[in-house]
């Protein structure tokens, strides 16, 4: 039975079909467009003869070595070179001479080099190889490992799709063709000083990158095509522009987002936060015409006029492969979506398909008779389109190993070709869409393509029968490039007339261009359908430091402005506590500056890890939590305190869905879990801990164990905290092991958790106090082993943070104690124990240096445990039948907690360690206390108030915990399982003007809604998580007095004099290299340059200790509008061994309370310094200098 071409792209083997109503044999399948209309038979014959001659000539074996070519020409009596002749032209001339000789009967079938041996002459089919590096071998293996599962997914998808009846395909394609005819011009913009040579949509289809022949690149927004950014780094002739697969979707704007090629032969890598390249890849000897990212985002291909294409590792910025094989300039390259194959083509009119796993050419595309300027892979992974100066586009099928269609695409040459890649393609991680009756529907991805031509037209073709569906005119010259957005709504083009034109589909009809929830994630910065203006909010809350947050955080708006303000303040706390350790990446710190009990040299503490990961799991930049987890499981967790890291690592997986990072530390987790056996009483079956090592000194158990005398140490007890943590950790390990296929490990740890829970509920629950309370592990004159403590503490509610207790009315009764002002409910927050305790709020401990009160847990309000209680409340209200409390209780606790963040009687946000429960204000107030990070708030807002309940399966549950006091809220830009979520609540419909009620959008499309507050559930198929790679800073000083070392123009490093902040000059200089960036005025960070009477030149230098490659720097400066000012002028200098020299001229003014990015061409140096002009009468505080 003959098969419809719409199905030939999906299934290789024949299968029976019984679709009623359509006779397959009557479906037109003619795809012969090879003969253009209006031509004579003589012209046609001439074209075909030239085509046949060129094919025969191309089949001749010609040496690739130029010396051998010259020798062969000399041997034939031909000039060895002509004026202006390049090696590739000389090789083509030899080919023509050889072919002419064959036609005249004078040439042997095999070419024999004058200097070649007989053995060489007898092996005309010998393949030539260039030895590859170890890095290339590793890359080939990596590509194979990456591509094989994707190929399997694609084939499975296509197998499912093959069941669709032909009649359904025909109807679907007919609808698409109708829609394609409805594109109209929407906007036009002059975008270059010279011809605009390239345009490409960003992955989220909210930006367009354009490049022109003057060498500049512009980032344009949609739909207005207004310039958002101009990138300068090329000298001329922008050719290739390629977006990183994660750009504008998951990658931070500060990391690699874009690659480009220029006329000078360089490939530049760009972020979206600076106008200079992150790196420049040198190697090509001529113009780089096209670039393409591998679908993994790790590798980049570039095509050049030097007759080669090259493969680069963008993480290391190294060249992996220089591939020859074309006799003339290589014009274009593209990877297939699996990532296993690359297609290249060029001015020799030949295309080649390369297997990246082996390096072999597996197919030759040799039917064009003029240079090939364009090619693109179909989303099915096995078809390639090529476009040529001969005016034709050709389709090549790798399964048939031949050309399968020829399309008369343009009256002139074809300059660009792009397939439509929708969000429902074979590698979108979705099964084929189904209608309301469950019938599988055809995809839209790959159903059409757009071409640009020398005839000033942009054409749209069906990818089924290759019919021309629309032709769009408007350019005044050659159209040089075109692209189609991932939602199918926009087509963009550019040309010699210096314009970029945007075309919009007017009639969408009934075609589902993407299923609900299956569209591209929209970046909050540029999303045209966004509720919130992310740029405005970032500037409002973060000022000059806004670029750091711009694309890293979800944006939140709420009718309660205090909750909204604290939400953004907590992101400032998160950012301030990210310490860059260089090669170890980032960690989160508990205190902004160093404390004596931290783990050196990193300043890490494990007690707050759960909160750090809980907050960080909602950052769109996964590097922070990923680096932190890697650090803690590789020597960073010394068990100084109790923690629930395995549980929080699993909780992070629930958000990002990344299996590899969730399972990579199972062995380390098991080792840590086992080590806690030194705090396990096997005869009792419970864990015990000293309250101090539970990060909760001066509890009932420690005070009473001392007879009321003290309580800082001692008082070991079987506590609700450590046993809840160990239960949660056991399940975290079990879940990760199950995910990794380690069923035996999962079974073991689930059994451990079950046994622990049973013993815990039996022995730690106190029926008299109706609460989980401590039992003593110590036995002395004051307390007896295993007796219960004599009062309730807030820690008794911590088990619900993990959903540990059974759902019974008996256990639920514990929650009534936070409702009583005589018990755990204080006027200004939740008490850590009750006023009935004999030593309630007695102050035992004071700071020796200041006399200020120190930390205690005998009543004070702690953000630490308040967060745990709020997370427990959310679990209770979501997952339990017996609740005791309601959403009003939750909102009351949350609002009281939010108020703690403000200094009493002010609008200043400064969260500290602990607080008075019965009057306003913090208790401790030491310098270390400012902006303290041992609690959570972001996680509370997102998973509680907004109600996003992450799931391990492919779904999302939404259940906001708000009462009638919240009239509206919106959370936007939430990264979840590779998608983008937006949640909106509008009680009246008047705030967002999009209807009354609750709505959940996935990738910009509504998937669930309700007119009232209720629990919503929606399917969310899992997409690959964003990459977590990033640049490694080279200037961080972990160990004082070791390289890299800093110095400052006004610093005497040997002076022991201490400033008002307790630092000498050496310590202040170290601060500039300690990997910490914050701009809070309460706690100094960085080196202070004293005020001078006149403008003065100052510098800060870094000695790396050896020759180091440097190409970029970040400079952070503090300003307060008064004493501290920002330098108006700065530049970068490097040491050449004898003197300092500028590598970056005057860069204008440094950014105050933000980060100035500066880059230059990579160079080797042992020292670098930032030089600046200090304004007269003002101090300058240099916060941090990072060099990459």
Task: Give an overview in words.
- The protein has 1188 residues and is an alpha+beta fold.
- The chain has 23 helices and 53 strands.
- The strands form 15 sheets. Strands 47, 48, 49, 50, 51, 52 and 53 form a 7-stranded antiparallel beta sheet that branches. The chain has a 5-stranded antiparallel beta sheet with strand order 29-42-43-44-45.
- Helix 15 (666-675) runs antiparallel to helix 17 (720-739) and helix 17 (720-739) runs antiparallel to helix 18.
- It starts with a helix and ends with a strand.
- The model is unreliable at 1-41, 105-127 and 510-529 (pLDDT under 50).
Mean pLDDT score, rounded? Answer: 88
SS field, number of helical segments? 23
Largest β sheet strand count, sense and barrel closure: 7 strands, antiparallel
Instruction: Please identify, by name, the CATH architecture of the domain at 151-427 and 440-505.
Output: 7 Propeller
Tell me, what is the CATH class of the domain at 151-427 and 440-505? Mainly Beta
Give the N-terminus to C-terminus distance in angstroms. Answer: 62 Å
Task: Based on Cα principal axes, name the global outline.
Answer: globular
Approximate helicity band:
10-25%
What share of the residues does DSSP label as strand, in percent? 15-25%
Q: Outline the low-pLDDT stretches.
A: 1-41, 105-127, 510-529
Q: Would you identify the CATH H-level superfamily of the domain at 151-427 and 440-505?
A: YVTN repeat-like/Quinoprotein amine dehydrogenase
The beta-strand count equals: 53
* CATH overall fold name of the domain at 151-427 and 440-505: Methylamine Dehydrogenase, Chain H
Main structural class: alpha+beta
- The radius of gyration is 34 Å
